[in-house]
Amino acid sequence: MVKVKIRLGTIFDDTEFFEVKMACTKCGQCCMNTQMELLPEDIERITSLGYRLEDFAVFDGEIWRLRNVDRHCVFLNPHTMECTIYENRPIGCRLYPLVYDDVEGPYIDKECPAWNTVKQSEIDRLGKYLSLFIARSRQTNQWVRLRHGVRS
Asked: What angle separates helix 40-47 from helix 140-148, to the nearest 10 degrees?
């Protein structure tokens, strides 16, 4: 698959920067019953691959998220447990298992089997961007309405 470069003029244009360095086991657990938020950059990148917004995203009344099919992300191949758009996957998928809580701040989700392979330096490097990620995900609906004409 070709990797698509999208530039909307935000820090989230640089997808490679947001890759959490870890020893991922590719178990697919993070793709099960996902509630992954989508940024405008994610939607633009994925739609440029030929997917329609309604094929991969749902609006929960506040946030656009990845769609689940049969209790897993629409892009997870359940036979191989691989992401079918891995090179173009959303920023939130790239950041996982680094997550954010308004009280705790950035932390590593211990539901990930490889959580203990994420070094503190990765939390320090990327943790400061998580509140920006959340704020940007809250802008996605306005962007979808303007760019795609979708009324939620």
From this structure: 40
